[in-house]
Amino acid sequence: MLLARLHWFCEALTSFPLQLTLGTIPFAIGFMIARMKWWAVAAGALVAINGLILLSGMPINRQSDVRDGPKLRIASANVRTDNRDHASFLKWAEAARPDVLAVLEVDARWANVLDELDFYPYQIVDSRNDNFGIALLSTQPFEMSRILFLADSDVPTIVARIRLEDETWTIIATHPLPPVGNDHWGARNRHLAALAALSKQQDGRVIICGDLNTSPWSPFFGDLLRDGRVKDSRAGFGYLGTWPDHQRLLWTPIDHILVSHGMVTTSRTVGPPIGSDHRPVSATIIDPSPK
């Protein structure tokens, strides 16, 4: 973890503390049985270190008993551009029916699929031929919406505002480049830094959602939380891995819903398979003390 700021591969290893913890336990036990004392100590230390890292990305504070205040049900789904299992996505969306839905990797074909969700009369769609098309769907009107390109990237981010009771909430949906290779790693890091600055600039409550291509154990994710003045809605709800869905032994949470401090998450779930390599995520957010 100390080396995660120095190289993309070192940071990638921080995404799998659960797997590293479970993977080193058999070695610790085996060395103990074989009475290989120092090897057992070393393996035990690795179990402890990885376990502590795992817990550091799973905060336990939660106030799910809060019921009063403006409430929003929000979800994010990376549908994967070449995924043709549209029926599974539509079935999930129709069953979940969040108030606001961010959809990632939207091309022209997926844009047509989104048109079938007629319970979302308000849609912002930027379809693209690469894997970075994006859409934001809502059951209620947007007071403002725009598409930005953070950190001089070619990757679109949607910023929109909706009104809940007497409050204005800003929704930011985004999908940075995957941090594989030094160039994309640097671009992803600049994107997250610009995202934090954008979040900090907003008046009122903020929700950031999307495939952020970073896990809770990355130091750059920590920077986003601190500098963007947001918190992880996963707090108190468990591990909630979302990717890669076709290799579940490697599951890690990279699809996120981040919320302003003071807001309360009363539910946080991972959805069923939708044919993508990602699972959708959903949350119910309440502001118990609206300003």
TrEMBL record:
Pfam families: Exo_endo_phos. It comes from Stratiformator vulcanicus. The chain crosses the membrane at residues 12-33, 39-57. It comes from the Bacteria. The keyword Transmembrane helix applies. The keyword Heme does not apply. This is Endonuclease/Exonuclease/phosphatase family protein. One of its GO terms (molecular function) is exonuclease activity. Residues 269-291 are annotated as: Disordered. Residues 75-278 form the Endonuclease/exonuclease/phosphatase domain. Keywords: Endonuclease, Exonuclease, Hydrolase, Membrane, Nuclease, Transmembrane, Transmembrane helix.
